[in-house]
From TrEMBL:
One of its GO terms (cellular component) is cytosol. The gene is cmk. Keywords: ATP-binding, Cytoplasm, Kinase, Nucleotide-binding, Transferase. NCBIfam families: cmk (TIGR00017). Gene3D superfamilies: P-loop containing nucleotide triphosphate hydrolases. The keyword Thylakoid does not apply. Residues 160-196 are annotated as: Disordered. This is Cytidylate kinase. Belongs to the cytidylate kinase family. Type 1 subfamily. It catalyses: CMP + ATP = CDP + ADP; dCMP + ATP = dCDP + ADP. Its EC number is 2.7.4.25. Residues 9-220 form the Cytidylate kinase domain.
Length: 226
């Protein structure tokens, strides 16, 4: 029988490590909710771009940070994301949003707003939740039951991402990923970082199925020990 206590799983790591695929599959297998926090930062970035906000002006971004209403659907079989009622699941994956999301997500007012949203979603997940991002184990949910930090070589990450982008050039994908990771890791407010108590899983040589199995086992061990 499943444990009655909600289990909170934080999965962090850079782009292209298999975070989303792993997190969704683990949540689906274990009957948990799923939250893609990168999608929330992409959604607020999309809104800024669409509303003519200069994303390179942190004070303009900060002043607008409270305006869009972002709603995340947390079913791992079909996660959704809307901004002011508009489905933005497609538009948030464009190159334009990808190239601007690091600047927007470095603004403290944006992080405060999105972090609050993430905490309230996690608190209301009845059976528990898998939350994926960059600062979940360190800042958003420091008391998570299990923290995972996924890594992979830049080559493996670029190859996976260009596969997802249907044949995008591996070299330019690699450069763009490295640039985004550097920006995300070096920002002042809650950078991409491994929590001291996170389990690091290097996925370079692993298949997706192996990574999923590894994380499911870790969650089950945690639950059994509760
Ligand atoms: O996971 P992703 O590549 O869709 O995330 C997009 C961007 O959002 C990422 O480059 C940095 C930002 N992000 C963040 O700052 N904090 C998070 N918890 C998740 C994502």
């Amino acid at each position: 029988m499943e444990s009655a206590t909600p289990v909170i799983v934080a999965i962090d790591g850079p782009a292209g490590t298999g975070k989303s695929s792993t997190s969704k599959a683990v949540a689906a297998q274990l009957g948990l909710s799923y939250l893609d926090t990168g999608a929330q930062y992409r959604a607020i970035t999309w809104w800024m771009v669409n509303n003519g906000i200069d994303v390179d002006d942190p004070s303009a971004v900060a002043a607008a940070a409270g305006k869009p209403e972002i709603v995340s659907g947390t079913d791992p079989e079909g996660p959704t994301i809307t901004v002011d009622g508009v489905d933005v699941s497609g538009p948030i994956r464009t190159q334009e949003v990808s190239s601007k999301v690091s600047a927007v997500s470095a603004v403290p007012e944006v992080r405060a707003r999105i972090t609050e949203l993430q905490r309230s979603i996690a608190a209301s997940a009845a059976s528990g939740i898998v939350v994926e991002g960059r600062d979940i184990g360190t800042t958003v949910l420091p008391d998570a039951d299990l923290k995972i930090f996924l890594t992979a070589s830049p080559e493996a990450r670029a190859a996976r991402r260009s596969g997802e982008l249907k044949g995008a050039d591996v070299h330019s994908t690699r450069e763009a990923l490295i640039k985004r990771d550097e920006a995300d890791s070096s920002r002042k407010t809650s950078p991409l970082a491994k929590a001291d108590d996170a389990v690091e899983v290097d996925t370079t040589e692993l298949t997706l199925a192996q990574v999923i199995e590894c994380v499911v086992t870790l969650v089950e061990e945690k639950r059994a020990g509760k």
